[in-house]
Specification:
By secondary structure, the protein is α/β, with parallel strands linked by helices. The protein has helices at residues 11-22, 35-43, 45-57, 75-86, 140-164, and strands spanning 4-8, 28-29, 62-67, 90-95, 132-133.
Length: 165
């Protein structure tokens, strides 16, 4: 079954790294938004941003949070995580700090964005349920290949975890 995914990430610092993952062609993801489109959406205020996110999440079976240095605790990333989980979608994270940006630099490893969510039902931290994958390489090429090789399995596992929770 072909899976459609939503990619969640901190746009400004991580869009180059995120584009690498989104363009792997392993699974179908949401259409990239341009800088100009995103600025126009933001000008519409919080309601416009929320409506855009809600529209992008429709028909998706999984949300992939691409974790950069400052991804955790961002308002809209938190919204995307919470909405995805509450809507029954699979959720997973992938650390992307070792992928190179457009200038050839890596970034610092960010915090787990699922760590501050607590499940009402049993008090568990979402970070103890949702997997956040940290590729075991420092070479950008090896990190890229690791993600590409495993992404489909990670998505299926995330959907299974959510369906069984």
């Amino acid at each position: 079954m072909a899976r459609r995914t939503f990619y969640s990430f901190h746009y400004k610092p991580d869009n180059w790294r995120a584009a690498q993952v989104r363009n792997m062609g392993v699974i179908e993801g949401n259409r990239p938004v341009s800088d100009n489109d995103w600025e126009q959406i933001k000008r519409g205020g919080n309601k416009a941003i929320q409506d855009w996110i809600d529209g992008q999440l429709k028909g998706k079976s999984c949300t992939i949070v691409l974790i950069g240095a400052k991804t955790a605790r961002r308002k809209w990333i938190d919204y995307e995580i919470k909405k995805s989980w509450n809507d029954g979608k699979g959720v997973l994270g992938i650390y992307i700090h070792n992928l190179l940006d457009r200038d050839g630099y890596k970034s610092a490893k960010g915090k787990n964005p699922f760590a501050h969510f607590t499940m009402e039902r049993d008090g568990k931290k979402l970070s103890n349920i949702v997997k956040a994958y940290d590729p075991p390489y420092t070479s950008s090429k090896y990190v890229y290949n690791h993600i590409k090789k495993n992404l489909t399995t990670w998505v299926e596992d995330a959907i299974s975890i959510r369906n069984n929770y």
